[in-house]
């Protein structure tokens, strides 16, 4: 044979990666929205293509930068890429716009472009997990002891739950909390189905049993996503898929993307088992506390069956994950797979911790809206007097211009020169800013704005750390 | 089996299980849970350097060699995330334990590059 094939790994240089990410995000269905919410259109998501050329997705983000804008952008892109594998339909009739968006979302162009950037986005967002190091000789017995410790831990409220209870507006905080689960719970267990296909022995059937539970045994009223829809509706929210896309936090998308990442890359199958054990085991206590929390905040009218159902079924799923999936797979494949199972367990624990802290901080950010508005004056004085100099953007926008939600990598000062801005810091959370007023914007905190006067002239000063301006 | 969590470095980086102290060591070839006392005469293994090839720990007392590869692959099962180590010790769960601090040699702090 005279032909010598040249097999090389798929690689993109940073410039090409950025170009392809922009190509993907430039699809008309991903452009900025003129409204805060997407109304019954599962294909529309805002990816803010205009910012992509300023981002570098080519390297893993360090742990301390996981909530920077680059992470939010990458997680929004990834969620969109993963979901082109899933079937979505609007609840209402297919309008001409729905048809066009449906075809565009599932088009080969959209899928091929997404697939080319996916490995780099995954590395960008999940590369920090390579810091987890598993060593030593793991046996079935040591694995059982290690996993068992989680099961035996006492039920302790998470930072998010505490933040909701202590919020100045617990109902708003709880609604924002439910919104964070929507990307996962409305298409619950879809990532799991990625591992239901194939041929790998008895564990495949056990895996399928968990999926059957999640899907309500084919009875739509019992499907877990249907239960969650009822929770959302009873809390005054709409359960359209990605209606609240603009209010998803980086880490909420990351939690949902993580299981897609594991399921889409079958080389991480054993990690999925560890992560599954973590989530199924912790969900029992979490859902018990969640049901109590929602009832406490909204009163008896809130439907918490989604949560109470999980208290029951996840007691079984945690056990099944160990006895029917993990231990049999170790028996089948050998103890060499255990480090990957342990790694998956630790990976998901790390991401869940990040998400908990992120949400609690977002509640604090929403609650601090009035104080941040007051802080404008002393910080602006320092800027105006020249005592603080920072990069500044001068912006003029017309009525109705909506800055789709985003976040900054450092603190900023927003100063309104003329006109009126509605500054939005979360679902149902805003401050009205008039000429001469403004607000401090915290680093990494999700926000957006809409102009409520004929024109608004405003300035954004990238002060870095607003507290340093006050000293 | 006894599952313990301790620090990878700094305060609380040594856990004593029964009467054996353990630390978490990081070398260029990988990390592992290290019995801090040499099995030969009880020398301070946490202060051991690696040999020139970077594969064996050399006890500072009598020069006994301990395979780092063996500790990585066959040692106490452990996982580290950030500065937290969780390890599973092959002793009864009610074994007496205590936590303290032991300094580590430069080679065991991950400061030597791989050959």
Automatic annotation (TrEMBL), chain A:
InterPro entries from the UniProt entry: Haem_Oase-like_multi-hlx, RmlC-like_jellyroll, RmlC_Cupin_sf
Organism superkingdom: Bacteria
CDD domains noted in UniProt: cupin_SznF-like_C (cd07002)
Gene3D superfamilies: Heme oxygenase-like (1.20.910.10), Jelly Rolls (2.60.120.10)
Protein name: Iron-containing redox enzyme family protein
TrEMBL record, chain B:
InterPro entries per UniProt: Rieske_2Fe-2S, Rieske_2Fe-2S_sf
Keyword tags: 2Fe-2S, Iron, Iron-sulfur, Metal-binding
Record carries keyword Iron: yes
One Pfam family hit: Rieske
Gene3D superfamilies xref list: Rieske [2Fe-2S] iron-sulphur domain
Record bears the keyword Glycoprotein: no
Domain named Rieske: residues: 1-87
PROSITE patterns noted in UniProt: RIESKE
Name this polypeptide is given: Rieske (2Fe-2S) protein
């Amino acid at each position: 044979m005279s032909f010598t094939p040249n097999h090389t790994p798929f690689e993109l240089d940073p410039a090409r990666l950025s170009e392809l990410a922009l190509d993907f995000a430039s699809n008309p269905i991903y452009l900025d929205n003129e409204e805060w919410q997407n109304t019954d259109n599962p294909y529309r998501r805002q990816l803010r293509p205009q910012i992509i050329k300023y981002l570098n997705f080519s390297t893993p983000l360090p742990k301390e930068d996981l909530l920077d804008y680059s992470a939010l952008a990458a997680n929004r892109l990834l969620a969109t890429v993963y979901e082109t594998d899933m079937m979505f339909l609007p609840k209402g009739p297919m309008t001409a716009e729905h048809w066009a968006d449906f075809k565009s979302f599932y088009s080969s162009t959209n899928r091929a472009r997404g697939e080319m950037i996916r490995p780099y986005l995954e590395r960008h967002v999940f590369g920090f997990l390579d810091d987890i190091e598993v060593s030593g000789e793991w046996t079935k017995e040591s694995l059982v002891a290690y996993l068992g410790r989680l099961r035996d831990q006492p039920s302790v409220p998470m930072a998010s739950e505490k933040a909701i209870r202590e919020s100045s507006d617990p109902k708003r905080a709880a609604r924002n909390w439910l919104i964070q689960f929507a990307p996962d719970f409305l298409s619950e267990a879809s990532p799991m189905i990625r591992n239901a296909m194939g041929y790998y022995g008895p564990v495949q059937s056990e895996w399928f049993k968990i999926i059957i539970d999640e899907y309500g045994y084919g009875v739509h009223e019992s499907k877990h996503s249907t239960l969650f829809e009822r929770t959302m509706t009873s809390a005054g929210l709409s359960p359209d898929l990605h209606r609240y896309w603009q209010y998803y936090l980086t880490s909420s998308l990351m939690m949902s993307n993580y299981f897609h990442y594991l399921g889409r890359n079958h080389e991480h199958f054993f990690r999925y088992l560890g992560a599954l054990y973590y989530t199924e085991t912790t969900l029992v206590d979490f859902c018990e506390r969640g049901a109590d929390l929602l009832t406490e905040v909204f009163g008896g009218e809130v439907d918490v069956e989604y949560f109470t159902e999980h208290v029951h079924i996840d007691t079984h799923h945690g056990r099944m994950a160990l006895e029917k999936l993990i231990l049999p797979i170790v028996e089948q494949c050998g103890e060499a797979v255990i480090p990957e199972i342990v790694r998956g367990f630790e990976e998901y624990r790390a991401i869940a911790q990040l998400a908990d802290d992120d949400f609690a901080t977002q509640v604090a950010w929403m609650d601090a809206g009035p104080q941040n508005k007051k802080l404008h004056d002393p910080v602006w004085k320092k800027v105006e007097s020249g005592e603080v100099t920072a990069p500044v953007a001068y912006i003029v926008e017309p009525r109705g211009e909506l800055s789709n939600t985003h976040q900054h990598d450092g603190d900023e000062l927003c100063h309104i020169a003329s006109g009126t801005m509605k500054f939005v810091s979360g679902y149902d959370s805003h401050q009205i800013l008039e000429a001469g007023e403004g607000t401090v914007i915290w680093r990494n905190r999700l926000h957006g704005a809409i102009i409520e006067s004929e024109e608004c002239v405003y300035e954004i000063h990238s002060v870095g750390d607003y507290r340093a301006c006050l000293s | 089996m006894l599952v313990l969590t301790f620090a990878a470095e700094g305060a609380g980086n040594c856990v004593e299980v029964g009467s054996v102290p353990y630390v978490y060591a990081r070398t260029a070839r990988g990390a592992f849970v290290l019995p801090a006392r040499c099995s030969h005469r009880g020398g301070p293994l946490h202060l051991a350097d690696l040999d020139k090839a970077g594969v064996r720990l050399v006890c500072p007392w009598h020069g006994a060699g301990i395979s780092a590869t063996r500790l990585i692959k066959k040692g106490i099962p452990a996982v580290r995330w950030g500065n937290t180590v969780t390890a599973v010790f092959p002793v009864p769960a009610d074994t007496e334990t205590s936590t303290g601090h032991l300094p580590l040699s430069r080679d065991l702090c991950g400061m030597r590059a791989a050959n």
